[in-house]
Amino acid sequence: MTIAYPAFSTRSLRYSAEALREAALLIRAGEPVAVPTETVYGLAADATDSNAVAAIYSAKGRPSFNPLIVHVADRDMAERLALFSPGARALADRYWPGPLTLVLPVRETSGLSPLVTAGLPTVALRLPAHPAMRALIRAAGCPLAAPSANRSGSISPTRAEHVLASLDGKIRLILDEGPTSEGLESTIAAPEEDKLRLLRPGPVTAAMLEAASGLPVVAAAGGKIEAPGQLESHYAPSKPVRLNALRAEKEDYLIGFGLMPCHINLSTEADLTEAAANLFAALHIADVSAAPRIAVAPIPSEGVGAAINDRLRRAAA
């Protein structure tokens, strides 16, 4: 006789003290919970519990060779998990809390699940600025592994409804505190003795990293996966994406930038910070439109534009 277990629907709760308590109980029980950060919504679980981390991979359909970012509530927690060089400390002093992830040598005594590091001798750490994520870490009493709260490879979620559309029935709870402020995933950098390797561009630009650390910033060489967001095809809609489009062709949904005719505009004022905050939401809207293709206007690559173009290139791959 086969027993049929009832499926569950995912609940989305407005962020509150009661919702936080419920989320922390689920974390302690080994279940992942979707929670906002200032970058995108994350799918958080106890980074010290391999079964909980495996539940993240399962819900997302994420390949296990792709490491996860571990989120901490404060610097003391971070220092217990990894070894900080002088350059790493300078960057943390300047940009933590905030949208910067540091890839650092993991301590043997960290207690982290090996699934978090995907077998690497390093761990990706971030101290987020969003109060909901930091409150959840404190309430759960453990560091939280938290990739973006969406099916692996698809468009990152910047609103609770994006999470629900992607993971309904895969997780039990979403903490909803409206749209995220940055709209792009964190910058990921690996400090070394004589340089800083940029593994993923983000809101903290290469120039900002160099000024804070005093180290030259070099692009990461292709090849092995050292951090999230390095897969060639990532952040991708279900439709083909055409980049550097100056106008919409037949059957295109055009995402514009600056003053131009388009279906939706990332920033009519050509403001790159505004464009970054709106990018994933615009891709979600384009993906559910009736148009079979998505076109995106040219975006300058200066400042945070480098991160926008990184995401667009991977979305179009």
What structural keywords apply?
alpha/beta; globular; disordered N terminus; 10 helices; 9-stranded mixed β-sheet; 4-stranded parallel β-sheet; 317 residues; single chain
Q: What is the residue-mean pLDDT, rounded to a whole number?
A: 93
* Rg from Cα: 19 Å
Secondary-structure-derived class: alpha/beta
Q: Could you give the order of the helices and strands?
A: EHEEHEHHEHEHEHEEEHEEEEHEH
Low-pLDDT segments: 1-6
Provide structural commentary.
The chain has 317 residues and is α/β, with parallel strands linked by helices. Helices cover 31% and strands 19% of the residues. It has 10 helices and 15 strands. A 9-stranded mixed beta sheet has the order 2-3-7-4-6-5-9-10-11, sandwiched between helices. It is globular and about 55 Å long.
Question: Gist?
Answer:
This protein is α/β, with parallel strands linked by helices and 317 residues long.
